């Protein structure tokens, strides 16, 4: 154990030393090679929908290079069998494999994206995640560390509530360890800074140079698999949301501090500049931007720094995307279908400077490294998406010139019989020394 930990710590330090050349598009792990120029593809992890096409979850590949003859077209669609509540995906640190999770079946699908970036291949399916992890349910965020994938769980198999853990695998797909979130009854050495230590989990991000890992919180299986309207009208269900962000020691996986961040904090996005020691998250139920920052004494703190829209109307903030220059935070709100740009040049006082309606509903937003291109998708959860005419399912590409968003193309996933478009990741031939079309 000592030898393995020492070896792994050395790998982490090597990654930190080369951080300046091992960064990624603005929302992914800092250990990956980055696409600083034009991306060739967007991989969209898509939920199968009853009565739509083959009804299966699938990885949809769209050509997004304006120089390509297939620009704006679906060039591949790989179904994985059944509906698993497809949700999040991410690459291994070498970016050769894309891991994608299913919240309901707990399956993890591993795709080879390096052999032919235009046509990913399914190479492995992990089916024993719950058993190996000791009862973790709902693989959500998949996050790359050197030679490792860290996976956040959203629930557990005992009561299907929010109590859960993070789970570590090797890049080869072998289980390594489970780290349960601290709770009131078992803080595991962490300091409880406020009222809550709920053990809930959602997203995960790291600042390697600060030996910092952060996790946020959401809700358990019994809520995210429930009809949205039914849940909103269930007082007990509305009590079952997380209110915490946890600070971890990145190297040892030891929880250090539990912050009160009430209202279900979701995505975490960390600043890129070496002098910027902070990360952002947003709260779904209270519509606020929170700053997790290091103070003058070197201690990490959590602070509510801005409202998103009108919190009284519960616009339901979902995805956020930070720019590579740490000056912009894009925030999507599901209920009103809006994307908002916040100026975060002063991270303690974000200011909304732009907004635009994308559709009747919107979930994910992904930004290119240079900030000139933004991509949007529609689906939140199968049982939470809007119904009827408002159930728009799409992938949209926009150009951003610093003042306005201009739509370049849109793909109607209902019309194309693909399903519910959820999360996006970028691909490029250049990552693997290949030329376009090869």
TrEMBL record:
Xref: InterPro entries: Quino_amine_DH_bsu, Se-bd
Entry keyword Signal: yes
Coiled coil (UniProt feature): none
Keyword annotations: Signal
Family in the record: Belongs to the selenium-binding protein family.
Protein name, per record: Selenium-binding family protein
Record's signal peptide: 1-23
